[in-house]
Design brief:
The protein has 313 residues and is α+β, with helices and mostly antiparallel strands. It is 25% helix and 28% strand. The chain is built from seven helices and 16 strands. Strands 4, 6, 9, 11, 14 and 16 form a six-stranded antiparallel sheet that branches. A five-stranded antiparallel sheet has the order 5-10-15-12-13, with no helix packed on it. A three-stranded parallel sheet has the order 1-2-3, with helices on both faces. Helix 1 packs parallel to helix 2 and helix 2 runs parallel beside helix 3.
């Protein structure tokens, strides 16, 4: 099952994990946010939230971290990610330390591995898969040689308490607020309630539109308002490559009505690879309390403003 969504990071991953993956009760999960997460501590915290939610799930999935890489620069978030993985005894497979290193040594040409410096070609994907398979075969061989599968041992190990988190761990219980579970006040904004997207891939293409279950505003003055209790908050909205998209303003008020934050949300995307599920962090580790969050279209465009969700933790 491919539950990945291109261009998104572990903040979104932590919030949608149950909805988009764990409901399938997986036995084995490969986690990779190494190129969409930045090498910043805030992403180590959201990534740790993903790992802790996986490890505490009743189906007891085995977990492997995969570190993909920017082939032009060698950049990724693996150092921070793997620190978190090590805390929980989770193994990882690093493409930076294997395929990328062999490219630097001259065994492969960059253009054979990737057309754009990031996304692997078919040949590049084959090499990534080979590294994962090689690791799993090694695990299998070592386990069979030890014959270390006594009855009940796995369950007892999983029942043991998870170690204390290495970060502030605000995102283990993050939730994704969309039009299927939230009922805001609105004027002009309409819900796009098309239900759950099945993560199916056919002939190399994801089936369905990832922009769903949000709210759409088209006219200047359209607004939507939420009452959200959280200490951390992010908004996810569409940035469009089509040009002339609507622009909105987000304001946050305390329960006393005083404005605390004002952020411009520009629906125009400067890159060209496709519309972006853009995530913008609004609050991080503030006092946990009820706030009024309001989004209003302030500039009309040909492309409507699409508010996908809020991520609250």
């Amino acid at each position: 099952m491919n539950a990945g969504i291109g261009g998104t990071d572990s903040l979104f991953g932590a919030a949608r994990l149950e909805r988009d993956l764990l409901r399938e009760q997986p036995d084995f999960v490969i986690v990779d946010f190494s190129v969409n997460d930045k090498a910043k501590e805030c992403f180590q915290e959201t990534f740790e939230g993903v790992l802790r939610k996986l490890l505490s799930w009743p189906s007891e999935p085995a977990v492997l971290v995969l570190n993909n890489v920017y082939y032009d620069t060698g950049e990724n978030a693996q150092d921070l990610h793997n620190q978190a993985a090590a805390r929980y005894g989770i193994s990882w497979v690093s493409i930076r330390d294997t395929v990328y290193e062999r490219m630097l040594e001259g065994k492969y040409r960059r253009e054979d591995l990737t057309p754009d410096g990031l996304h692997p070609s078919d040949f590049g994907h084959r090499l990534v898969a080979d590294e994962v398979i090689r690791y799993l075969e090694k695990v299998k061989e070592e386990a069979l040689s030890r014959q270390d599968f006594p009855e009940g041992e796995r369950e007892r190990e999983r029942a043991a308490k998870l170690p204390e988190p290495m970060t502030r761990n605000a995102y283990e219980q993050a939730v994704c607020l969309d039009c299927l579970n939230s009922f805001p006040e609105a004027s002009g904004f309409v819900a796009d309630a098309r239900g759950h997207l099945d993560f199916l891939v056919k002939e190399g293409k994801a089936q369905g539109d990832f922009f769903r279950n949000g709210w759409i505003g088209k006219e200047r003055g359209d607004w939507i308002a939420f009452a959200i209790t959280s200490s951390c908050l992010a908004i996810q909205y569409r940035k469009s490559v089509k040009g002339d998209a609507c622009i909105a303003r987000l304001t946050i008020e305390g329960i006393d009505g005083n404005e605390e934050i004002s952020v411009i949300l520009d629906g125009n995307f400067e890159e060209s690879w496709g519309d972006c599920l853009y995530m913008e962090r609004i609050l991080e580790h503030k006092e946990r309390r009820l706030r009024r969050v309001r989004v209003e279209v302030i500039k009309k465009g040909k492309v409507p403003f699409y508010l996908l969700s809020f991520i609250a933790a």
